[in-house]
C-alpha cells in the first residue's frame, strides 16, 4: 500500500487496534499498512535497516532506538501495559493459578504448553520455570512458535495451555482466559509509540500517534485486556 502510513507494531496491542482504533482512523479515508511482529523481531528488522513511519513496541527498545537516532525522542508516547497470563480452549477446565503453588501444579498437570520463542512471555515463562525448579518438565511439554499467537495451538489441539500477554491470548477466538500469572511471578510490559526520524509521512505519523494516545484509544486498550497508560504517567 504505497499511499498508506506504514506502522510496525507489537502483537500485544493488535486486538485493541483491530477492534476499534484502526477503524476510527481509517473511517476518514486514511490508510494504514500494519506490520505485526513480537518486539524482538521488530527490533531485528529495524536494526537490519528496515524503516516505517511509526513503531509500537516495548519501552526499553523504543528508548534504545531513539538513543541510536532511529526514532524521534520527542514523539514517544506511552500507550498501554500488559501482563502475562494463561489460556485454555473454550469450555475446557480452567486450572487454579491464583498462587505460586497452584500455578506450578497447573504447568505440571498440562499435556502441552504453547509459548513463543521470540516473545517476552515465552522468555519469562522459562525464567519462572527455572525458579520453580521445573524447567525440564516445562521444556518437555513445550509447543513453541517463532512468532504469532500461542492460543492458536489450543484451537489446533496441539496444546492445552497457552502462555502469552493476556491481550494476545484474547486475540484468538475460541479460547478462555484462565487468568494472570500469580503476583509474585507476574511481570508487566509497557508499550509506547514513536515516529521514525526517517518517516516518509512525518505529519501523519504524529497525528496517528496522537490518535493512539487519545482517550478513546485508552478505553480500547482497557477493553482488550491492557492497562491504559495516560501521557505523563510513569511506567
Whole-number average pLDDT? 94
Task: Give the C-level CATH assignment of the largest domain.
Answer: Alpha Beta
Distance between the termini: 35 Å
CATH topology of the largest domain: D-Maltodextrin-Binding Protein, domain 2
The major beta sheet can be summarized as:
6 strands, mixed
Range of strand content: 15-25%
**Overall 3D form:** elongated
- Structural class comes to alpha/beta
State the CATH superfamily name of the largest domain: Periplasmic binding protein-like II
Q: What is the number of E strands?
A: 11
Tally of separate helices:
10
Strand order of the largest sheet: 2-1-3-10-4-11
Rg result: 18 Å
Give the name of the CATH architecture of the largest domain: 3-Layer(aba) Sandwich
3D architecture notes:
InterPro entries: ModA/WtpA. It holds the Pfam family SBP_bac_11. This is ABC transporter substrate-binding protein. It comes from Borborobacter arsenicus. One of its GO terms (molecular function) is molybdate ion binding. The chain is an alpha/beta fold. It has two domains: 5-81 and 189-228, D-Maltodextrin-Binding Protein, domain 2 (3-Layer(aba) Sandwich), CATH 3.40.190; 84-185, D-Maltodextrin-Binding Protein, domain 2 (3-Layer(aba) Sandwich). 38% of the residues lie in helices and 23% in strands. It has ten helices and eleven strands. It has helices spanning 14-26, 39-47, 59-67, 100-109, 120-132, 135-140, 152-156, 166-169, 202-212, 215-223; strands spanning 5-9, 32-36, 54-58, 77-82, 84-89, 113-116, 142-145, 161-165, 175-180, 189-195, 227-228. The strands form two sheets. A six-stranded mixed β-sheet has the order 2-1-3-10-4-11. Helix 1 runs antiparallel to helix 10 (215-223). The chain is elongated, with a radius of gyration of 18 Å.
Amino acid at each position: 500500500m504505497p499511499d498508506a502510513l506504514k506502522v510496525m507494531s507489537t502483537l500485544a496491542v493488535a486486538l485493541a487496534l483491530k477492534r476499534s482504533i484502526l477503524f476510527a482512523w481509517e473511517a476518514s479515508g486514511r490508510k494504514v499498512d500494519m506490520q505485526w511482529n513480537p518486539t524482538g523481531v521488530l527490533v531485528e528488522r529495524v536494526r537490519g535497516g528496515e524503516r516505517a513511519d511509526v513503531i509500537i513496541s516495548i519501552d526499553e527498545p523504543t528508548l534504545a532506538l531513539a538513543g541510536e537516532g532511529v526514532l524521534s525522542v520527542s514523539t514517544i508516547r506511552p500507550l498501554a501495559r500488559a501482563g502475562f497470563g494463561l489460556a485454555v480452549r473454550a469450555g475446557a477446565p480452567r486450572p487454579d493459578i491464583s498462587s505460586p503453588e497452584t500455578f506450578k501444579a497447573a504447568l505440571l498437570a498440562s499435556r502441552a504448553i504453547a509459548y513463543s520463542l521470540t516473545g517476552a512471555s515465552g522468555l519469562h515463562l522459562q525464567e519462572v520455570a527455572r525458579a520453580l525448579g521445573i524447567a525440564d518438565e516445562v521444556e518437555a511439554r513445550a509447543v513453541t512458535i517463532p512468532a504469532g499467537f500461542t492460543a492458536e495451538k489450543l484451537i489446533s489441539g496441539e496444546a492445552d495451555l497457552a502462555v502469552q500477554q493476556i491481550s494476545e491470548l484474547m486475540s484468538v477466538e475460541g479460547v478462555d482466559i484462565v487468568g494472570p500469572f500469580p503476583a509474585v511471578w507476574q511481570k508487566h510490559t509497557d508499550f509506547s509509540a514513536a515516529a521514525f526520524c526517517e518517516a516518509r509521512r512525518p505529519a501523519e505519523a504524529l497525528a496517528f500517534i496522537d490518535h493512539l494516545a487519545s482517550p478513546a484509544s485508552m478505553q480500547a486498550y482497557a477493553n482488550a485486556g491492557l492497562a491504559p497508560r495516560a501521557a505523563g504517567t510513569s511506567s
